[in-house]
Amino acid sequence: MGLKGYLHDIWEAVATTAKGMRITARYGVDPRETITLQYPEERWEPSERFRGFLHNDIKRCTSCTMCVKVCPVDCISLESVRGADKKLVLASYDINIGRCMYCGLCVEVCPPKSLTHTSGYEKATVTRGELILHFVPEDAEEIKARVAKQVAEAAAKAEAEKSAKAEAPPMGWPAPVFAAGNPGAGADAEKKPAQEPKGEPANREEPPKEGGEKAE
């Protein structure tokens, strides 16, 4: 490398250093150029499409397990049981944000749109157990026991209604009414008039003839 190239390298180093220091000096002197925030007193506002911690609205969740199936790192787990109305009842729903990669696939496939990304991103902890978010506050075993009891009660009620319907007489058939002293007679026997004995009685008088004379 000749003298000319050596002097060119020196000039290029000085020029680039001066250019960089000019930008640094401008940010250091001009108060409008704020870069560093006094965290945690000051925080940047996340953008609208920021993918923060996941949140599940369990009132809208249908326990379809689509989020569990699509998660590439298996950070979502849920348990559900079939209720008395044949619908799934959510027993537990947990998300391990320590394993979550915030890809957003679970949010995209959620049918009721109950799973969403929030703007939260601060979760410093010393134990991994605190990184698991529990969205169902009640114990899963208690929910399962309660739902099983409701299913058993509904089944017993349906069986009782079925038995009562089988024992009841068919619609449109009148219930039998027996006459006193004659269990075999029905209601028509009471309304039927007594029939006269066959043959005419010996002491029956003939009707009077014309003129008021009686027959001999």
Report on this structure.
The protein is α+β, with helices and mostly antiparallel strands. The chain has a domain at 54-143: Alpha-Beta Plaits (2-Layer Sandwich), CATH 3.30.70. It has helices at 3-29, 66-70, 105-109, 140-167, 187-191, and strands at 54-56, 76-82, 88-96, 115-117, 132-134. Strand 2 (76-82) and strand 3 (88-96) form a beta hairpin. The longest helix is centred in the C-terminal third of the chain and has 28 residues, at 140-167. The radius of gyration is 48 Å and the shape is rod-shaped. Mean pLDDT is 81; it is low at 212-216.
CATH class of the domain at 54-143, please? Alpha Beta
Largest sheet: 3 strands, antiparallel
How would you describe the oligomerization state of the chains in this entry? single chain
Proportion of residues in β-strands: 5-15%
Overall pLDDT metric = 81
| CATH architectural grouping of the domain at 54-143 | 2-Layer Sandwich
Helicity level = 25-40%
Q: Pairing-aware structural class of the strands and helices?
A: alpha+beta
Order of helices and strands: HEHEEHEEHH
Roughly how many Å apart are the termini? 178 Å
Shape: rod-shaped
Count of individual helical segments: 5
Strand order of the largest sheet: 2-3-5
Taking pLDDT < 50 over at least 5 consecutive residues as the criterion, the unreliable ranges are 212-216
